[in-house]
Design goal:
CATH topology of the largest domain in chain A: Rossmann fold
Oligomer: heterodimer
CATH superfamily of the largest domain in chain A: P-loop containing nucleotide triphosphate hydrolases
Shape of chain A: globular
Order of helices and strands of chain B: HHHHEEHHHHHHH
Shape of chain B: globular
Structural class of chain B: mainly alpha
Strand order of the largest sheet of chain A: 6-7-8-3-9-10
CATH architecture of the largest domain in chain A: 3-Layer(aba) Sandwich
Largest interface: A-B, 28 and 18 residues
Strand order of the largest sheet of chain B: 1-2
Helix content of chain A: 25-40%
Number of strands of chain A: 10
Number of helices of chain B: 11
Largest sheet of chain A: 6 strands, mixed
CATH class of the largest domain in chain A: Alpha Beta
Largest sheet of chain B: 2 strands, antiparallel
């Protein structure tokens, strides 16, 4: 196994809150260097799956294994901080910036872990290069920026962690269509530059499939369809039924 | 109103304000940045005063030097208190009211212990500069006020640089905004709060030394400061050390002018009146979040 493979595999995961079961025997794999889309409308378990990977929710059954630089880690029992420190970054739903701190402070907070500090200069330069808006506004409070700018900052902040695997939860929520497409483009750019492995939960099916290599459709906590290419997903009956109403 | 009297009142007020700033800095961190209502803080300041007193009497050392040597002990005490507070209250989301009761209890315990050990007599330190004065023209700077003021400003500068320029400092500023998001930065929010709370308690060591240089102390001296420190903290704006400093200087100057021209009993009324007025216009305080 090569030393630079980074993948994530979810094997038969059940999870829920109290008596409510949200995920039902979910299995999913993101291979090294792939961009995988997790498609589903609201309330089908996409965010819960992200929370399980990050250790915010604990699966009642199944395993989540991340491979970072060729080394396998079972994520069960690790704290969120430890999981992030392995090299898994999440851009959370709703962005979760630190609104009362400046753009620059938010970015530097992303670089808090010792492994990321060594790359602060190059990562910061790169973030400012692909998001020139952030460079212009670096001393502005994060909370005072527009939704699109905040999404860019959330992405850039995750990159400052110097991750191997990038999870993105609903990047399109609350953004105008033009900004959605820019955000999706930015994810692709970052992925290529840092050679990331990406898992993206999204309900905007057309936009997500522009950059995804493969995808899964999740319905009521179950993976109902696995598409091995964007084409396969595009022509799938389930998707037509759920998204396009045909 | 004589001009030289006014200038001297302002000078005295600035020095008093700088001392208030030191007394408030701990609250500004624990209450302003961590949402921990550490009402016992003035009690720990008095503990700092007594430590400075006992070592000063035994060894003749300077109270400020003693306070600096005692910083690690206060830091460790802060870590222990936070750990107890976290496990008993914060973890279960019962921090607001029960936490307040916890710190109220700590205040009493500290006071009672000091009472039993030292009694209720006034205690003071022996330092050569206590009676001295620096005079420039008709401006007068009593050294017992000037030294704490200068060291306090230095401490404030150090704290502000630490909070705004280091990774841990930035995390301290972030932790009350969104602790979960901090986890996504690979930072443990509980560890950050423990560090910040320990720092806030360590400031009590310094403030205690300043207090006993400025005036003699009894175990219940801390009580006079409870209202004032929270007032300064809120006036300056929660979560802002520069705001706290400005508010402390403002209150110091106003109290000093009021007591010079109208008598000391008016001072608290005027400063709390100013607090209410400011909050009516700016509910978040001078530089608040």
């Amino acid at each position: 196994m090569a030393a630079n493979t980074n993948s994530i595999s979810i094997e038969g995961v059940d999870a829920g809150y109290g008596l409510v079961r949200v995920l039902d025997n979910v299995s999913l794999r993101v291979n090294s260097g792939e961009t995988v889309a997790l498609l589903g409308t609201n309330g089908n378990g996409k965010s819960t799956l992200m929370k399980c990977i990050m250790g915010w929710a604990r699966p009642s059954k199944g395993r989540i294994v991340a491979e970072i630089d060729g080394e396998k880690h079972d994520l069960a029992g690790l704290s969120t901080e430890q999981i992030v420190d392995l090299g898994i970054a999440l851009v959370p739903e709703g962005r979760r910036l630190f609104p009362r701190q400046t753009v620059e402070e938010n970015l530097l907070l992303g670089a808090s872990r010792p492994k990321a500090r060594a790359h602060i200069k190059t990562n910061l330069d790169f973030c400012f290069e692909i998001f020139p808006r952030l460079a212009e506004r670096k001393s502005q409070l994060a909370g005072s920026m527009s939704g699109g700018e905040q999404q860019m900052l959330a992405l850039a902040r995750a990159l400052m962690l110097n991750p191997r695997i990038l999870l993105v939860d609903e990047p399109s929520v609350g953004l105008a269509p033009l900004l959605v497409s820019r955000t999706i483009d930015a994810i692709k750019q970052l992925k290529d530059h840092f050679n990331l492995t990406v898992l993206m939960a999204e309900q905007n099916f057309t936009q997500a499939l522009r950059i995804a290599d493969r995808g899964y459709v999740i319905v009521h906590g179950k993976i109902e369809f696995e598409g091995n290419s964007a084409d396969e997903l595009n022509n799938n009956d389930l998707i037509r039924q759920f998204y396009l109403g045909m | 109103m004589q001009f030289d009297l006014l200038i001297n009142a302002i000078i005295a007020g600035l020095m008093l304000g700088a001392f208030y700033a030191a007394v408030t800095s701990g609250i500004s961190i624990s209450f302003g940045m961590l949402d921990i209502v550490n009402i016992a803080h003035p009690g720990f300041i008095i503990l700092g005063s007594y430590i400075a007193y006992i070592v000063n009497v035994q060894l003749g050392a300077d109270p400020i030097v003693i306070a600096i040597v005692a910083l690690p002990a206060f830091y460790a005490l802060g870590s222990i208190i936070y750990e107890i507070y976290y496990r008993s209250f914060e973890k279960h989301g019962q921090d607001s009211l029960r936490g307040l009761a916890f710190f109220f209890g700590l205040l009493f315990v500290t006071e009672v212990v000091l009472n039993m050990v030292f009694g209720v007599d006034y205690r003071s330190v022996n330092v050569p500069y206590i009676g001295g004065s620096l005079t420039i023209g008709w401006m007068e700077f009593p050294i017992r006020m000037l030294v704490p003021a200068v060291v306090s400003i230095l401490m404030f500068g150090g704290l502000q640089i630490y909070l705004s320029r280091t990774f841990i400092g930035r995390a301290v500023m972030a932790v009350s905004q969104d602790p979960q998001a901090l986890q996504l930065m690979a930072v443990d929010p509980i560890r950050i709060k423990r560090i910040a709370f320990s720092i806030s308690l360590a400031t009590a060591s310094m403030a205690g030394a300043f207090l006993i240089i400025i005036q003699p102390v009894i175990p219940s001296s801390g009580r006079e400061y409870i209202g004032r420190v929270f007032a300064i903290c809120v006036l300056g704006g929660l979560g802002s050390l520069p705001g706290t400093l400005i508010a402390a200087l403002l209150i110091g100057v106003i109290e000093s002018i009021t007591s010079t021209f109208y008598g000391p009993s008016w001072a608290p009324a005027v400063s709390f009146g100013l607090l209410l007025l400011t909050l009516a216009v700016r509910p978040s305080g001078l530089l608040g979040r």
